[in-house]
Amino acid sequence: MKPDARPFPARRVEAVVVGASAGGIEALLALLHGIPPPWRLPVVVVLHLPEGHQSHLAEIFAERLHMPVHEAADKMPVAPDCLYFAPPGYHLSIERDRCFSLSCEPPVHFSRPSIDVLMASAADAYGPALAGFLLTGANDDGAEGLLRIHMAGGLTAVQDPEEAQIPTMPRAAIARHSPDHVLALRELRTLLLQLESAHAH
Amino acid sequence: MNPNAASLPLPSALSNTEIELRLLMEAIYLRYSYDFRNYTVASQKRRVLHALAQLGLPSISALQEKVLRDPLLFGRLLEFLTIPVSEMFRDPAYFLALRRHVVPILHTYASLKVWVAGCSTGEEVFSLAILLREEGLLSRTQIYATDINPASLEKARQGIFPIESIRGYTANYQRAGGRSSFSDYYTAAYDAARFDPALCADVIFADHSLATDSVFAETQFVSCRNVLIYFNRELQDRALGLFHESLCHRGFLGLGAKESIDFSSYAGRFDAHSQPERIYRKAT
């Protein structure tokens, strides 16, 4: 059920970018599973996987969620009702015209796709109309990107390191700036639903 | 005032960085005729900011002032602006699909012309040359390998690659359906592997820009992988237009694993030939 109560200050954003690595699939499922349709807020995810693995993230999540799920493709427009995953082996950016672009630049924090790259480009594209979520993970990727979202006036939310399966990534983000929210997954989900509701209406 | 204007999302103003970036690309174009004006912004911005840090310059404007007057500095900047990242038999499935689904049709031509557009430091050129030799086509094939970066072209001409890359290349070669032993194609010396120069006997390495130059030959196959992702839609269309013009009737176009023509204005002018591997064929 979508809650009527709005426990968080009202914010309108046009997209949500999410970063996670170790433990990320479970965390992301906890965040999104069981949300009833319709869904009207683009969610773009970088989830680190071991290098060389073929990604089936889009298929895995499409089977479990009631929203369209795609692997982001080069020049694909960011549709308002979809969940996107970065393809493995490429950095994913969002351009100012709200289309995706891919690149083969060297890995950042040993990661390609990198959360920092997605978040910084999305901060440029959306400015204050962006929310960034950073979840469980075992490296520092995302800390810089979340800071860039914050500096552009966007909303930042970090999974509570006490709850995160691997707290390194949330802790690194909190060390770089004071996120708007540090929350358990259950509350992050409430925040996400509220953002969707504010965006859709 | 348009009464509906308030409900439309306001386009956010360009940041100073983006304005400086555009001015830099305009300056480079006017001074050196290299046209980066229609490259995707996110990646270009990262590369220029990286160059600033490496060159010890405080701002893009400062870089512009120096680059205008210093061709050597421009040469260094070019290394940052182009992405010389490649490997041999990258995405082995692509080369396997070429062997299985394209080579049989290429055999029907008496002579072949192949264009490797954006060949960078040559890894793809040597991979294709090896594949064509194994398939009995190399002796009747003229390969054009083009790039905008003269330093990359020079490296490509030499065919010398770091020895530490060879293990990965060998694995790729095997997964790409290699018919021989990969070590047959190079001689190792110290920290380098020098590839058989005969592979490149019929390769023309040439300076060519997809942004400013035109078609130079009729070809049966164009391979242009992980180049178009750095172009905005307008420039992608220009490049695809060149490929379309260059390709013979029902000629083949190979793109990168995550590239597609679906979002370009050429979407209807190529048929998917081997879709997962991004091999297209010029539509009739």
Shape of chain B: globular
Number of strands of chain B: 10
Oligomer kind? heterodimer
How many structural domains does the protein architecture of chain B include?
Answer: 2
Sheet of most strands of chain A:
7 strands, parallel
Report the CATH C-level class of chain A.
Answer: Alpha Beta
| The CATH fourth-level homologous superfamily of chain A | Methylesterase CheB, C-terminal domain
Order of helices and strands of chain A: EHEHEEEEHEHEHEH
β content of chain B, as a range? Answer: 15-25%
Percent range of helical residues of chain A: 25-40%
Describe the 3D structure:
Chain A has 201 residues and is an alpha/beta fold. Helix content of chain A is 31%, strand content 19%. Chain A has a seven-stranded parallel β-sheet, sandwiched between helices. Chain A has a two-stranded antiparallel sheet with strand order 5-6. Chain A is globular. The model of chain A has no long low-confidence stretch (mean pLDDT 92). Chain B is α/β, with parallel strands linked by helices and 284 residues long. In chain B, 40% of the residues lie in helices and 19% in strands. Chain B is built from nine helices and ten strands. Chain B has helices at residues 16-32, 41-55, 60-69, 71-81, 92-106, 123-134, 150-158, 166-175, 233-246, and strands at 112-117, 141-147, 160-162, 186-189, 192-195, 203-207, 219-224, 247-255, 270-274, 279-282. In chain B, strand 7, helix 9 and strand 8 form a beta-alpha-beta unit. The longest helix of chain B has 17 residues, at 16-32. Classes of the chains: A alpha/beta (201), B alpha/beta (284). Chains A and B meet through strand 5, strand 6 and helix 3 of A and helix 2 of B.
Give a brief description.
The complex is a heterodimer of chains A (201) and B (284). With 201 residues, chain A is α/β, with parallel strands linked by helices.
